[in-house]
Amino acid sequence: MQIVILDDAAQVAAYGANIFAKQLLKKPASVLGLATGSTPVALYQQLIEKNKAGDISFSQATTFNLDEYLGLTGEHPQSYRYFMNEQLFNHVDIDKQNTHVPPGDAVNPLVACTEYEQKIAAAGGVDIQLLGIGRNGHIGFNEPSSGLTSRTRVKTLTKATIEDNARFFAEGEYQPHLSITMGIGTILEAKKVVLLATGASKADAVHAMVEGPLMAKCPASALQLHKDAVIIIDKAAASKLEDLEFYRHIEAENQKLQAHLATL
Predict the structure, then answer these.
(1) Which of 194, 195, 215, 258 is least enclosed, having the fewest CB within 10 Å?
(2) What is the pTM of this model?
(3) Could you confirm whether 115 is annotated as catalytic?
(4) Can 143 be counted among the known catalytic residues?
């Protein structure tokens, strides 16, 4: 893992956005794995600004989102398809036919999961996958107990995740307890993974992911196995890491190496 510790959430978003911008410049027809939730919003806003300024283009890109609530149509305001349209797709030059979100209204969700895997494979796999992390260590909707080799599947949400997401639903509004999510095995096959975490509420999960053992109790700990995982966090999210200076030193040395390689 590459651990990048920054001052605040704004810097986290900017750092992450630059990674995605570089990916699109290097490979305009990139396959982007995207995420929902409050943390990626600022990153998407920066990508929109870069797109409007003509610095990057999504015209050749293909996207696959991590997950979706089972039981919601794409038109539902709380669906992740709706979220992605509002937060990114409606504002950039992407062909929406090339944007994929698991179908929450699938007649046969199990078949839909298999088809989603097939679409990712047909696109050549994900070049760069964006992730957030839940307070219980989940990535996507891979809740604690998820297998390291799991594929796209229907997953029951934990009480903690349901409670965390309840703020997005009106009182008395139906809130799904099931989802379709990329599996951990699917996520680990992405060529590069970028995880964002901000705020003190994520500190325990970040500690378990980075310094804890590889375990199903913290699904994000599976990223320890990935050859190119970048963990971008602010000081608050990093507050329970045991050796902050060590991670800062390693990142500083990495930046020196990257600067040197750029001159070759």
Answers:
(1) 258
(2) 0.92
(3) no
(4) yes
Token duo for residue 249? 């030193």
Is residue 75 part of the annotated active site? The answer reads no
Q: 163-217, pLDDT tens digit by residue?
A: 888 877 877 777 788 999 999 999 999 999 999 999 999 999 999 999 999 999 9
What confidence tens digit (pLDDT) does each residue in 69-100 have? 999 999 999 999 999 999 999 999 999 999 99
**Among this protein's residues, is 234 annotated catalytic?**
no
- Rounded CA-CA distance 142/132 in Å is 12
Amino acid of residue 213? P
Would you call 235 helix, strand, or coil by DSSP?
A: coil
| CA distances from residue 255 to 4, 12, 211, 261 in whole angstroms, order as listed | 10, 16, 22, 10
Rounded to an integer, what is the distance from CA 69 to the centroid of its chain? 16
pLDDT at 244 over 90: no
Of 127, 136, 142, 226, catalytic: 136
